[in-house]
Design brief:
single chain, 4-stranded mixed sheet
Amino acid sequence: MPAPAPARATPAPSRAECRLVSQGDEQLDTRPDRKVASRAAIEWSVLSVEELYACGLSHTAVFDRVQNGRLHPMYRGVYAVGHANPPLEGCFLAAVKACRPGALLSHHAAAAHWDYLPWDGRDPEVTVTGSATRSHRGIRVHRTLLLDARDRRHYRGIPVTSPARTLLDLAGTRISDDRLRRAVREALALKRVTIAQLIEILTRLPHRRGARRLAAIVAAGVPTRSELEDAALDLLLRGGLAHPDVNRPLTLSGRRVISDFRWPEQRLVLEADGAAWHDNPLAREDDAQRQAILEAHGERVVRVTWEQVVARPRPTFARVAAAGAPYCAAG
């Protein structure tokens, strides 16, 4: 009888087959980064170091991610996540976060964020309460002892001064009169602010720097509706003419007529004709009808173009003055 075959030896398991992999450990390694990515997606790609810690990163982990290019320092304690070029909103938010809780985007930066003016690339401006806030290279910090709750907003994810407070702060800078008036016009046109809100903040903060400049614009009536009207009004006022009514409606022959500029006592109207007047037959026809109605009711109409206002200001001013536009009273 043949001898039984010897039992086959079971091979010893290799180290690779015996290695235990903890999926939980892998999740712990990646979970903070997922939290960072999720939060950065709603924070314009910008997080403070405290927010990174709240996502589960340690001080060492933050340092390592800076070294490997996953975090990019913007200001002290503020990082761009994933790339070094966040959008403009991210740059604004980074400046606010660098100045710590309670800080607000303000002045020119706030005006750009509210779409009053185009951004010109200057250092972002931030307003903080108190005097102990540290300075930051690349940020212009404005300090105030008190910032009323009415002057605080949160717009497109960024803490910012209210629309009215932004205009008041802007008026306190070296911005030119025409740019300030344009900012007020845009704020009103975009319905970010109302005349009543401007009056409220001027009444509440009458001695703040810029209050007199802003009050003068509000007192002059509704701002102009275009850059051409801005330029024309500047030309009139620089030459010493009395401030006309601006875009004030009249009801003539049952029709609502809005003239660009009008001196009521002289019954003189000045119309500023932009490109649409030259290039659009419908616009020319509408203006011709409006002018006919005005003249039928005893108004005299003078028309000026962009080229006349900008390239030939002296003869243009002389023509308006010769038509009877009044000068400011002496004193």
